[in-house]
């Protein structure tokens, strides 16, 4: 007897990408793009970036890490 094959559900097709913005003190620039499945999973997520990524070109700031929630 042949088993019925099931369709595999691709979890990446369900996800949508959300832009994470820095706070007002950093002029609300985009910090990261995060895949989420629902809005509840996005709240409370921590994004790690360096100060070099935010200031765009000051190489002396590459060792400082910032965590945004």
Automatic annotation (TrEMBL):
Keyword Translocase annotated: no
Stored InterPro entries: Ribosomal_eS1 (IPR001593)
Iron-sulfur found in the keyword field: no
Protein keywords: Ribonucleoprotein, Ribosomal protein
Gene Ontology biological process: translation
GO molecular function, one term: structural constituent of ribosome
GO cellular component: ribonucleoprotein complex; ribosome
Protein name: 30S ribosomal protein S3ae
Organism: marine metagenome
